[in-house]
């Protein structure tokens, strides 16, 4: 689950956080997003609502996107690492869960805002790129487990496959097509996993 | 080549265009982007420079993103449909050419701006989604040719594979990683095409 990894990522930022203030800031940020969407979201508005100083927020989250990513991750409650014993089925569950999660709640729009931010703000780009790398490791576990079972060859690059699936999901989200037919997603994963070249 | 397809797409918009004005508008838009980037780009600025009316521009391009997409497509000069006789090699050339094209000139940033626009403007989202669908047909031709040769089974969904490759490329671009090692891209395409399941 994404939230289990958060403390690890935070440690790398360096600045020590006060858990109560951190909680107040993340809650304020989530409430502002839920009430007013991305348009209403600013570090200033979060600081006011959380009764925190802007410098404190910036010390812990170097960009608006970094704060958004933490809010987003806390709300991430879908099945990101299924383990059915079959790699194709696991990856299909992952892709379908991710897109449903984006399509059905506010999180899809939050993540779209983060990606949009990253196109003009280098700090946001760095936060997004680090986040995506972290997610590839996480999704790659599905493939590494299949390698341990002998279902997938050892030379398969788990990170590249995880990136392929994530890229497909991002493409759907960013074109307004997160709400995808499950059987189409299963077919997409089948092709990624089983290949298309005639044996 | 992308520009060959443009008249077809334009016909579907419905409003008849005056070729000289259209040329002036597209040239003005490209110059503004080259000089000031996306921050300097607005329909107003394009109208002023092209000596055209804003209503004319909006009649031909329903959103800023639609105009940006036409500018972007006119500058697209990479090898989008290689034909070496081998589907894996063709798709690898396509992916490497696309990412180099994005990394080496201003077009990567233009396309990033279009995607960012599409995250908050429904007209931009529609323009991007239509554009992506059109590109899938175009890239899918590589796979359909391989199906005619018998290299790829008839039941392979060419559009889904084209979408998979495009999604991978978008992910690299949007995280600031368009400048990718060619051998990594080749490995990614190899996995997409040859599959990962142990036979």
From TrEMBL, chains A, B:
Molecular function per GO: DNA-binding transcription factor activity; transcription cis-regulatory region binding
Has UniProt tagged this entry with the keyword Transcription?
yes
Q: Name one Pfam family in it.
A: TetR_C_11
Organism of origin:
Paradevosia tibetensis
Coiled coil feature spans: none
The name this protein goes by in its record: TetR/AcrR family transcriptional regulator
Q: Which UniProt keywords apply?
A: DNA-binding, Transcription, Transcription regulation
For the keyword Transcription, the answer is yes
Organism taxonomic ancestry: Bacteria, Pseudomonadati, Pseudomonadota, Alphaproteobacteria, Hyphomicrobiales
